């Protein structure tokens, strides 16, 4: 019912974050509504697409899901350079993964397109006491209310949480990031992340899309790292297949 | 069956791994006349058409285990539990007179050194077997004790007759001969089982395939049994695929881990295995606190994610052994450390070396019940062979992974040469080679093929010498990509990416792999020596000359 004349646009999204925080699992949940324990680690990057229906338009995400291990970090610029949005993921049961996420946020702010929409996502909520998903209807911001309880809950037994909602939320606010806590395993908040990103993409950005290179050339895309050829020019992608959908 | 065999490379790489130490003390040589002498009667005996009148045909060579368990012949060989109990009246029970004619015909076409199969280390001396094959079996017992280097050299074999700790160590799935194997992989040559051929059950095509297998195995055995293995010959044979039973030994030889000279094997293996076990012990001696946290963390999160679809890798024992191997390798190679993808590369070794010790399908096996001794040996062999493999592709895993970047751009240049239409199309839809082939290089196509197929590919890679995993792999990738040329040319960016990320290779078998390898060989023959071809655009750095 949603199709028809509704305008459709493509949005490039890149996932970044430490190894094994659940980047691929978030995408798999979003794209296929599926979850697999112990998926093989991503090598290099994986490409996927998924549509997101908004009331007045359809956004087609073209997703680059990158590998998390430090050794592959030099590949990342190729994938985020032309991205309009980024999902920076940490594992809220692992303190060091938020530090890594902050590092990625800083790098994006420095190197990626100036208008890039960044969402900070704490994954593996199912491993904490908040895993019941009662607040699943809440948007990202409403989680800040729950944040007040975060400190107390952390002490409860069986809670593997190492990063409080308050801590991550305040960092996200400081940096102007969208913020969510998710569980790729239960599906909690996953759709919401992508919908929020879709809503946050400025319409003006979408309208400028037309042909190769017209989309995101801002940020003065730096020289190429690999093979002497141009960077990943994702701008042209999907132009010929606007109605295509991965699902 | 071995599809790639016909295109075997004649010009092998340098023979630096050949062991030319033909030392005098060759146990093998001094014993070989005796061996030959004793094996001759086997042959006569073994090939005598049986007189009993059942419907089964004994069609092939047996390990002693088969002869001792004739009741069960059609199934896998049961390992003997007790020498004395095993003096089973044999033979006749399988071999039908009514099939004798075809049996003879079949025998006459097959290879002529089967008798060697009977020459098994592990036959207890006191075995007495009656019936048609009785003399053979007992002969084999005698020969094995005196005629095999490992048997004589090993502490247990020296006195005459093996002592098996069978009663205490009977483990489900573990081969009874494991102690001989632990000492010397050469003993695998005498544990090959050939299923009986039955003209009533098997089609002529099947019989032909079985005969081909036997003949091929015997070719390998001829090479592997010599006191100093001729690695050039082994390479040229192995290029077209190695029979499963001989693969553990052949891989270890091809990688230069197992000495070609059989006199050095037992001592070398003992030393190398000790070295690994000491390293591992030291690395883990202070518990997790004393370990490199970054490396250990990365390994421990990757181990449960390694081949998760194969039951073998879900077992705790596998996971503990693999993480130890990877960790010890990583701390001994600080320039690269552990990099994701190396966890994939260790699995073919694990699977192949483990398979030497067990019966049945290794991919569904739980190694938890194996004696620690066997696990140590398999782990150590995996560690050293992984080390040998990675030595040749070290720059794939150091900072910024220059080896992979070089290979990716070489691949791009190569495809421009061999399929310019495809190269142009990929360029038009703005697909970059790094976007799909990074993984091909980083994981040696292991994400694109089943482990079984990868194992077959590695037979060939190892036969290519040191450059197999760096250079020949490039041509395999090129052959693999252009295979999909027609489909790819109809696709846009998104379709190309999705397609290349999950190529339809699930149904691929040995034949497909053989064909792919042959095509790669062809491209390599055409382009390897044209040093300019990869420099088309003047930007490519390559190392072709270095390997020539």
From TrEMBL, chain A:
SMART domains: RAB, RAN, RAS, RHO. Residues 149-158 have a biased composition (Acidic residues). SUPFAM superfamilies: P-loop containing nucleoside triphosphate hydrolases (SSF52540). Residues 136-162, 205-224 are annotated as: Disordered. Transmembrane segments: none annotated. Pfam families: Ras. Residues 136-147 have a biased composition (Low complexity). Residues 210-224 have a biased composition (Gly residues). InterPro entries: P-loop_NTPase, Small_GTP-bd, Small_GTPase. GO terms for molecular function: GTP binding; GTPase activity. Keywords: Nucleotide-binding. NCBIfam families: small_GTP (TIGR00231). This is Uncharacterized protein.
Automatic annotation (TrEMBL), chain B:
GO terms for molecular function: GTPase activator activity. Residues 241-465 form the Rab-GAP TBC domain. One of its GO terms (cellular component) is Golgi apparatus. Residues 1-99 are annotated as: Disordered. Residues 25-40, 88-99 have a biased composition (Polar residues). PANTHER family: LD44506P, TBC1 DOMAIN FAMILY MEMBER GTPASE-ACTIVATING PROTEIN. This is GTPase-activating protein. It comes from Arthrobotrys musiformis. The lineage of its organism: Eukaryota, Fungi, Dikarya, Ascomycota, Pezizomycotina.
